[in-house]
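**Fold in tokens:**
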Amino acid sequence: MPDTYDRSLAHWSEEGRREMEAFYAVATKDYRVLAEAHDWRTELAATSADRRILDVACGSGKFPAALVQHAALDETPTWTVDLLDPSAFSIAEAARALKPPFVKGEELCLTAQALDPKRRYPLVWAVHGLYAVPAADLDLALERFVGAIAPGGLGFIAHARAEAHYLSFYTRYLERREGTPYATAEEIEATLGRRKTAMRVENLEYVGVVPADRPDVLEGYLQRCLFDESISLAAMRDDPDLGPYLASCRQPDGSHHFRQVVATFFLRN
């Protein structure tokens, strides 16, 4: 079976839309929580007159969409968002999701570690986008990320901790399978610490909920968490590693609650 990065990239495609839509039926909350947890209206207003953003691993553009919906941003003046992702499908999805005050800038179809080190932006973010970065590339990816922050600018990373559902579920999946674990917030924090990056780190805790009457959403959501559409919900429940975990997440009313612990990094260059 292809390893984590290759499976992740393959799922960012039209063929992976079913799992993607099921995933976001639950995970849209991830972005709402991030939009509401920080005063982004004030942050954007205080940032440089050079109103450009680099969205690293832009995915489907859910974070800027959440900011528009939940952060009470002014629609003018606009922010030009350069979309960086190794998936052309993701860039197209993210571009369609942008609404004022965000407008599409350049399309950078590449990995974070391949970013031109001469680029500078007043605001750089990577929101739930670095999980599948190969371990050997994480240091370089973060070097390029931090290097892209202009003097006086802000870098923002949101990434789950090892105890969060996303990582703990995938770790269980790999118990009897070959594969590279997802990068953890702990690894990101340690890497940034070694680089002497000025940062503030805050944790957010919340629960993602799948109602009892949506087994289709539950299956697609969990498949997307694993980037593996070949394993059915029934097979997950029968799996000796995944089954007990899913049973522990099931509530008396039949719904499933998935605990998330997300580290938010605010970086200054």
Summary: Residues 17-37 form the longest helix (21 residues). The longest strand covers residues 198-210.
